[in-house]
């Protein structure tokens, strides 16, 4: 499993995060991260399950299922686009979302990429993962804006299918209907964030992912300059996807 150290390796059930970017939970985990290359994290619940170097691993959760998942991931890098899509279909069925959702809202079903590149940190000092070219374009655009006195902050980059599914389940637990959630969140499998090419952008002293972002100098700068770096506004007012206006959400379309 040798890759560039700042690459996230994305399997079907597990993702491998470079150990030097992972935040250990407890002293023992931190010590293990210091002597291994990757942290293996289960995508369904975000739990840390092992640390690894090449094909060798040490379990953090000790059970037979976890060992089997790690062996499968390290042995074959268990990413399968067809299996990936089957999982999306199961999520849509669980939520009661039509299999024709994509056609009805002019949205494309997006498999998760097998690898993602480190593109700096977001506002909350979390590693930002993006498609390699998109990440490079984001950092170049961020630097160009700063030269004009504009500070752009990443709020969110790549999000997997399971993460998007979790958003729906959490909102449903708070009493929201699926149709209400679909006005502000694309269905699992259809979010541009799955591609690693989308980024939610903010600016200091402005709340994240709020329509008020359109009143900032940062948004005015993006509207004028973002296309020069390959980014477009995905969800303008009255967009064809039936998703609420999102002035913070930009997509690298080159």
Summarize the structure in words.
This protein has eight helices and eleven strands. By secondary structure, it is of the alpha+beta class. It has two domains: 7-76, no CATH class; 82-252, Muramoyl-pentapeptide Carboxypeptidase, domain 2 (2-Layer Sandwich), CATH 3.30.1380.10. A hairpin with a 5-residue loop joins strand 3 and strand 4 (48-53). The longest helix is centred in the middle third of the chain and has 16 residues, at 132-147. The mean pLDDT is 93.
Summarize the structure.
The chain is α+β, with helices and mostly antiparallel strands. The protein has helices spanning about 25-35, 65-75, 80-95, 100-105, 130-145, 160-175, 180, 215-225; strands at about 5-10, 15-20, 40, 50-55, 55-60, 115-120, 125-130, 155, 200, 230-235, 250.
Give short descriptive properties of this protein:
2 domains; 7-stranded antiparallel sheet; single chain; 254 residues; Muramoyl-pentapeptide Carboxypeptidase, domain 2
Strand content: 15-25%
Q: What is the CATH class name of the largest domain?
A: Alpha Beta
Detail the poorly predicted runs. Answer: none
- CATH architecture classification of the largest domain: 2-Layer Sandwich
Shape annotation? globular
Helix fraction by DSSP (H/I, runs of at least 4): 25-40%
> Kindly state the mean pLDDT as a whole number?
93
Strand order of the largest sheet: 5-4-3-2-1-6-7
Number of strands: 11
Q: In angstroms, what separates the terminal alpha carbons?
A: 29 Å
Oligomeric state as shown: single chain
Number of helices: 8
Number of domains: 2
Roughly how many Å is the radius of gyration? Answer: 19 Å
Q: Write down the CATH topology of the largest domain.
A: Muramoyl-pentapeptide Carboxypeptidase, domain 2
**Structural class computed from helices and strand pairing:** alpha+beta
The description of the largest β-sheet is: 7 strands, antiparallel
């Amino acid at each position: 499993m040798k890759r560039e150290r700042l690459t996230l390796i994305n399997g079907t059930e597990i993702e491998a995060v470079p150990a030097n970017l992972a935040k250990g939970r407890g002293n023992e985990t931190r010590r293990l991260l210091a002597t291994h290359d990757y942290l293996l994290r289960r995508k369904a619940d975000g739990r840390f399950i092992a640390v690894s170097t090449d094909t060798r691993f040490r379990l953090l959760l000790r059970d037979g299922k976890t060992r089997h998942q790690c062996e499968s991931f390290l042995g074959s890098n268990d990413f399968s686009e067809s299996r990936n899509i089957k999982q999306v279909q199961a999520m849509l069925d669980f939520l009661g979302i039509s299999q024709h959702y994509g056609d009805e809202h002019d949205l494309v079903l997006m498999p998760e990429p097998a690898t993602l590149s480190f593109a700096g940190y977001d506002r909350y000092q979390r590693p930002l993962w993006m498609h390699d070219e998109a990440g490079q374009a984001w950092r170049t655009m961020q630097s160009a804006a700063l030269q004009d006195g504009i500070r752009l902050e990443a709020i969110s980059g790549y999000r997997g299918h399971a993460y998007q599914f979790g958003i729906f389940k959490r909102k449903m637990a708070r009493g929201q209907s699926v149709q209400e959630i679909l006005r502000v969140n694309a269905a699992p499998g259809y979010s541009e964030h799955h591609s690693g090419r989308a980024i939610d952008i903010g600016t200091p002293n402005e709340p994240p992912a709020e329509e008020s972002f359109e009143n900032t100098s940062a948004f005015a700068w993006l509207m004028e300059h973002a296309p020069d770096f390959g980014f477009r506004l995905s969800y303008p007012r009255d967009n064809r996807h039936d998703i609420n206006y999102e002035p913070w959400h930009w997509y690298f379309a080159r």
